[in-house]
Structure formats: C-alpha cells, structure tokens
Amino acid sequence: MQELAIEVAGRSYPILIGDKLLDDAAVLERCVAARDVLVVTDETVAPLYLERVLRGLAGRRTASIALPAGEQHKTLAGVAPVFDALVAARLNRDACIVALGGGVVGDMAGFAAACYQRGIDCVQVPTTLLAQVDSSVGGKTGVNHPGGKNLIGAFHQPRAVIADTATLQTLPARELRAGLAEVIKYGLLGDLGFLVWIEQNLDSLLALDSRALAAAIRRSCAAKARIVVADERELGQRALLNLGHTFAHAIETATGYDTWLHGEAVGVGMLVAADMSARVGWLARPDVQRVRTLLARSGLPVEAPKIGADRARKLIGIDKKVRDGRLRLVLLRNLGDALVTDDYPADALNATLSAHFDGAGT
Amino acid sequence: MQELAIEVAGRSYPILIGDKLLDDAAVLERCVAARDVLVVTDETVAPLYLERVLRGLAGRRTASIALPAGEQHKTLAGVAPVFDALVAARLNRDACIVALGGGVVGDMAGFAAACYQRGIDCVQVPTTLLAQVDSSVGGKTGVNHPGGKNLIGAFHQPRAVIADTATLQTLPARELRAGLAEVIKYGLLGDLGFLVWIEQNLDSLLALDSRALAAAIRRSCAAKARIVVADERELGQRALLNLGHTFAHAIETATGYDTWLHGEAVGVGMLVAADMSARVGWLARPDVQRVRTLLARSGLPVEAPKIGADRARKLIGIDKKVRDGRLRLVLLRNLGDALVTDDYPADALNATLSAHFDGAGT
What we know:
The structure is a homodimer.
Chain A: E1 2-8, E2 11-18, H1 25-31, E3 36-42, H2 46-56, E4 61-67, H3 76-88, E5 96-101, H4 103-115, E6 121-126, H5 129-134, E7 140-145, E8 148-155, E9 160-164, H6 173-190, H7 192-206, H8 210-232, H9 245-255, H10 262-280, H11 285-297, H12 309-317, E10 322-323, E11 326-327, E12 329-334, E13 337-341, H13 346-357
Parallel strand pairs in A: 2-9, 3-4, 3-5, 5-6, 6-9
Antiparallel strand pairs in A: 1-2, 7-8, 10-11, 12-13
Helix pairs in contact in A: 3-4, 6-7, 6-8, 6-10, 7-8, 9-10, 9-12, 10-11, 10-13, 12-13
C-alpha cells in the first residue's frame, strides 16, 4: 500500500493507494471515524463493490443509496435523493458519507457532504482511474447546470481517500484510457521525468499492473497536491491543471457530453494545446509528435471532432476561464513545463482551431 | 449611520446600519465591488425596494430575480431559479449577489452565492428586523428539507451587510415584534445591561424610532459577533445562540411552520427555557416573570401552543442539537447569563414540558 498525506487548510488527510484495499477491513476502519455512515454509490458500481464496503463498515450504523449512473444525473435535482437518504437515516453532524464510485458519484456525494447540516465528513472511494487521480486532491465537489459543467458546487476536503487499484479490473477499457489522459497531463504540465516514466510503463498500466497503477496514481496525486498547495499561496498555479481542458470543454459541449469521455476530450485538448504551443514557437515539433504518439499508444483519440473553428472559438469564449474578456490558455513552454498565458498572437489560436476543428488535420 | 466591523476567518466585513441607507448611492457603491450583479429578492420586497437598489447600482451590469415569498419556497428546488438567473446573465466568478429581503431571501441567495462556481461575493441587504439582527453575522446560509429546517446549506460570509432601518417602516407589525424576540435574546443570554436598555427603550423600538432601532441592531450584531468569534476558538459558545430555539423548534414543527413566526416561537421558547431554569433552581421566579412581561409588552405571545408534552418531547428529541443521545439545552443561570448544559434533572424538563405544552399553564 502506498500512502500520501495531503496537507490542506491546516489539516491533513491520507490518500491510501493499493491493491485490494476494500478487502482490508483495517483500511475502512482507519479512514471512517464516524459511527453513522451513508454510502453513496451508483447503479453500476453498487453490484460490484457495495457489499464489500458495507462489510468493511460492520459494527457501524450504515445506510446506502445507489444513484442512477451517468453524468446526465449530476444535477442539483439529482443530488436531492442523497439529502433524502441522509434525513431518512436520521444522520446528524457526526455522520460520514462514503462516496463509492467514479467522478460523478464523488462530486455529487462530496457536494451533499459539504451541504448537509453545512458540512459533514466525506471519505472518497474512487473506483475509476480518472477519479483516483483527479478527484482525490483539491476538494472540488459539485453538480452541472444546463449552462455549464460544475457551475454549482463547494470546496469540501475529504477525510480520507481510498484508491483501490483492484477496482480498475472492472472498469471498461475505454474509461481506463480516459483516466490515463489525466495521468499524462501531470507529466506534461510539470514533470518530464514522470512523462518519461509513463512512456516506459505504459504497457504495464494498460495491462492493469497494480504496482504500476499505484505508482502512477501516487505521482499524479502528489503533482496535483503540489499545485493546489502552491495555489493557496495565490500564485495562480491551479489553472495549470486545466491543461487541455479549454479545448476539451469545446469538444464536450459541441458533442453533448455523451459522445466523448472527459478524459478523451482532455487528451485531444492537450494535443491541441501542444500544437498551439509549437505554433507560438515554444514547443518543438517533434515534441508535439511525442505527445500524439503517447496518446495514441494509450488508445486515446488524437483527432478532434470537426465541429468547425468558429463554433470552437465561440465555445471556448464562454468558458469560465475567461477573465476580463481575454482568454487565458494553458500552453507548454516545453514538455513538462506548462504556463498560463493570454499573451499569444491571435493568429496562432485561429490557426490552431482551424487545423484541428475545421478538418485540415494537424 | 452606525458601522460595525465583523472579523471572520482572517478578513473583515462591515455592517452598515442606519436610516435610508438604500437612498444613499455611496453606500451601495462602497459595498458592491463587482461590476456584474444579480439582485435576488422576493415578490413582496421587489415592488418596495428593488428599483431603489438597482438605481444605487447604476453603472454596473445588473440583473434581478424575485422569488416567490415565504419559507415554504426555501427549498433546494426553490434555489434553482437563482442559479438559472446567474447563468442566464452569464455571471462569472467576479460577480456579486445582492440579497434584498428577509431571512428567507438572505438564506437562499447566500446559499446560491456559496455554491455558484464554488463561491461568489454576496452583499446582504436585510429588510426585516429578524434578518438585520440574526442573519448579518455568522455566515449561515441554506435551505430547508422536509425532514428539517436548514438541513442543506453552507457557511458563506457576506462581503458587506446593509441594514436600512427605513425598510422596517413597511414591515408588518407582527414581523417587527418577532424580530424583537431575537433582540431580547441577546440581552437575555449575555448582557443584562442590554436587557435593561431594551426594557427602557421598548416603546421607541415599537414606534420604529430609527435611532433606537439602529442601536438595538448594532448591539445585537455585536453580541452575536462576540459569540461567533469565541466559537471559532472552539469554546462551543455558538450554541448559546440557540436560547429558546429547541422549544421553538418543537412549536414550529408541531404547528407546521405557518402558524407561528420563527421569532414568536423563539420568544415563547425563551420563556420556557427561563421557566425551566427556575425549576432547576438557577433563575429566580421574579426574573421569569420579568421575561414574560418584556415579551408581552413587545406584543409577543407568551403561551405555548398546547401540542402535548409527549409530542414536544419527541420533537425536541430529533433536533440537531442532540449529541450522543443526551439533550443539551440552553438555560439561564441568571438574566444576562446563559449556559449550555445537559446536566439537569430529567424531572425538571418533564415538568417544564407539561406546564407549557399540556395546558397546565406556567
């Protein structure tokens, strides 16, 4: 088992990473301090892991709720049944929510924990690679609004995170690959050594080698934690985490959020950002190719959907990341060295959008 | 104009209190830093004050929404239109919500501000005495659940509070009196001098003398701020603010929240708490009578509804204030000196509940 301590807002919580952690009663025993627990999961994950978690919580007063699976249920109305379950189980401020599932479950359950009686404990048990990497650090919780993703939410740090790599055995291969896109992101944006490690260990990761997966998760979480902590000192570092996300946002919005997985869109978004970084004169062309190769080897798409450059421009224009009318982008000075900037030629952005979204190819 | 600086979580915000503040453009100019503003109000307050506030915000990009008036709309679903309005107006993280209305509007708008893009600014413009006194300090926001009041919410400190005593001229007399109950609470729980001041100035307060009102609001807010700050040092002082509230909760739940105003229930609840404090041997009988007289002079009810002691016992038993199965109550050692305790004879509680809720009189 690997362990990472995340320091945030004057306290610390552990991320436990390893194989078959959910079969180890001592792990849940250690992470869940509360006597009263609501396990929030979804209808896909419940049949796979709910019983195991409830067994690990034996001796406590437990209740559970399985939400319908899917991002389309991640709405304000969709989180109401969690509040109903908390009230029905008569849980009070000392209770704890255990969020068992992917990012949608984690975001919704975490948001419910943030709001129920103005904040109760939450232990995150992410069962997708994306959630293990991305939701374990940062404390972002929330739901979507028809007007935009994650527009309604709260910061709520978990009490602990349990990332059981064994749960990835039941994850559809496509979702595993989407999670790898975020792992690659952490290499690309700040750690060339990690990027090289991913290139070298990609086959093990795709083969679900638990040791390789645990290492990738730990390094990704550690990288994210460094950035989030730096951002608490108001250095604006957190925006780096959006590498690829502005373009991904355009793809997801244009295609309705149900064609592309988030990680897939982020993968292509990073390639678009790399390409633009080359057009601006920062990244060498072979490095763009290296990004493309790694994404392709990971089984991720490397071609953006041809939604049209005009549409893409509009869609990134209404992104939350716009401040004072200038579009700040996360670009790459080098592999492993990202920056946030609005200081680039407008032509470079236009050419990039045309190349990727008009169908002219990269 | 009176001004009170509230220090919380490392920053400070002002409470401005005075007559006709909404007619003073400099006040809104000073309090609302954002360029983009959504004014959230309700259908009762909108015709009275919305135009005035929008005029005070001239030069900014403004939108407004008037929610249906009434506590029954203070639900998770009821706050959705505020998010819709924020999105429709394309407001981003730099935007500000101005909450114009009573406690319900303040709670809902504050909660929306806490959650929109994980937190935007909120300026509270309370237009009821209860809200001016009670919601200005503490940062509690939220909505009700069928299972209990304020079960869903967040802590979100306002950027500023503007308490215009002129708005109390349009407040129904009954609501003014209900607000006075909370003012009296601050005297009772911690400041005998203030209690005496209220006794001496009650006629001016009931006659809506703006100078007396401003003084009462300022002293109440200052008292609450002292308690909230003490509580941040984990002294558990905040529970003192619940003086009268446990019994009020039983009254409100039994009568369905639409017969008794919250302040009215709190008034009777404080009398019940005072009576029990006398039964325990702390408060002198004449002091209980003094509380009753002050409430009666304020035009507040002094008889609890006869819901039955058994029902009352059950209703206070499921209150949020129960920890580890023991019911902690806020009682009075003396006028102006409250304490939180679960160390009292069960008989004293039973006799108190019988006396007030079975119809045997006090």
